[in-house]
Amino acid sequence: RILVAGELNVDLVFRDCQAFPAPGREVLAEDAMVVPGSSSMICAMGLARLGNPVAFAGKVGVDGWGGFCVSALQGAGIDVAAVRRDPGLRTGITASFSTSSDRALVTFAGAIGALRASDIDDALLATADHLHVSSYYLQSALRPELKSLFARASALGLSTSLDPGFDPEQRWGNEWPCLLSEVDLFLPNDVELAGISGCESPLDGLRALDNGRTRTVVKRSRHGCATLDGAGGLLESPAFAVDAVDSTGAGDSFDAGFLHAWLRGLPLAEAMRWGNACGALSTRGVGGTARQADAAEAHALLGS
Ligand code: ADP
Questions:
Q1: Carbohydrate kinase PfkB domain: from which residue to which, for each copy (predicted)?
Q2: What interface predicted TM-score (ipTM) does this complex get?
Q3: pTM (two decimals)
Q4: Taking burial as the number of CB atoms within 10 A of a residue's CB, which of 60, 126, 208, 230 is the most buried?
């Protein structure tokens, strides 16, 4: 089974706003909804939808939003025994405002930042075959503890993967090589890869992070994904053509598809296609989890 550890939050989505509100003003939105939002929750739900047994480790407050997150996970058949509800914390919320041409986000991290490596003890790790960690988490109290968390997981025989959160202030600096030395699979998007490696091109970025252990696959939106081939060149996998409605969380659904195939031992190029297929199919609905692929839909797109 797959243990996904990371943030749990809700997204408040305001669609087709007349404009972004100027200070002191109010604008109307055409549509609004509340959806499960976080990177790790979208990945976990994508994995469950593909038929994988999944457990989640995370933290929420004792408030309605926390209950919403836990119910969403349970509704997807995910084991929530390791989701802690902390009365001293409030559940994280992201408000997303879109106009016809642009999008703006406001995030309150809340309980997201409070998960510690000690919440993910060896007994919990021992119930899983794979540990996946993602996003905001990396800028929280857990950050200095992540390397030892991955080392503990490896020592217990789990494979490991990491999807980095966007780090606009580059607070991670040169911590990356050290952390990645403990990770089997690294899944940044192209903006994150450029920020982490300091390299403009994906090929240079992938080469810069190559440590002989970690398989890095970079997600490139409409260009699909890429990784290093055996000769130090670029192995690319093109995106599937879809009528995208909303690409929120496409990277997390990509992670689900890639992990689903990779953990079954499929060849790397096939796992990349699975990632692209699940990323593309997730763009059919508004919010990251509305229209994630099940295995039959992914097979149909993959022609397999
Ligand atoms: P992130 O959500 O992390 O920014 P991307 O935008 O790169 O990640 O999307 C992840 C993956 O989802 C891409 O590698 C691609 O396979 C797929 N994808 C995203 N947007 C589209 C799109 N408009 N059409 C087809 N596939 C897409």
A1: 1-289
A2: 0.98
A3: 0.94
A4: 60
